[in-house]
Amino acid sequence: MREFTWIAGGTGFIFLMTCLGAAMVFFFRRRTGRMMQTLFLGFAAGVMIAAAVFGLLSPAIDEAEAMGNIGWLPAAGGCVLGALFLFGLDKLIPHLHPGANVREGLSSSMKRTTLLVSAVTLHNIPEGMAVGLSFALAAQHGGTPALYASAVALALGIGIQNFPEGAAISLPLRQEGIKAGKAFLLGCASGVVEPVFGFGMAFLAGYIAPYMPWLLSFAAGAMLYVVIEELIPEAHLGEHSNTGTLSVMAGFVLMMILDVSLG
Questions:
Q1: Which of 24, 85, 155, 243 ranks highest by number of CB atoms within 10 Å?
Q2: Total-model pTM
C-alpha cells in the first residue's frame, strides 16, 4: 500500500505539473517566442540527461553489481532497448511537432491538433516509466530512505521541466484556433501516459525484480532517445546557440543537485 501511495504521488505530481503548464493558455494567447522555446526545451533536455544518468543508469549499475553481475551489461543493454522502444513508437505512432508541417509515424487521417498532442505524449512516456521504477526500486529495498529520497528528487526534477512542456503544447494549440479550455484539456491529456506507464513499469518490476537493472536502464535509454531525437533539434541547439547550451547546463546541474542533496 505504501508503494502504491509513493508511486501515485510521484507520477501524479509530474502529471499535475504538466497540467499547470498547460494552464498558461488561460494567461497567454500567443505561443512562446523562439528564445523562450530554446530556454524551455534546452532546460528540459538537461534535466532528462541528468535524470537518466544519476537517477536511472547509476542505480542500475549499483543494483546489478549488488546482485553479483557485471554492472555495465544491463546498463548498456537496457539503454539500447529503451532507445529502440521509443524509436519504434516514433515510427509507428502518427504525430506532428509544434512548428513543423511534416507528419511523422504511420500515415493517418488524424487532425493536426491530435497529431500535435501525440508528439508531446511520446515525450512523457519515459518520464512516467522513470518515476514509477524509481519508487519501485525503493520499495524492493524495504523502503530505504535514501532510495525514496532519490526517487523524490527524480520526480521533482521531471515535474519542474514538465511545466514548460505543458505550455509548449497548449499555447501552439491555441494558435491553431482551438479554444483555451480545450487546449488546456489536450495539454493535460498528453501527460496521462505518465501515471499509466509509471504504474505499469512498477507493476512489471514487482514480478521480475531480478531484472530491475535492465528496467531502469530501459527507461534511461528511452529518455535519452527523446532528448537526442526531439528536444535538442526542437530547441534549435544545432545553430550554436549559447542560450540553448546554457539552458541545457542549467537543467543538468539542477537535476544533479536535487539527486545528490536529496539522495
A1: 155
A2: 0.86
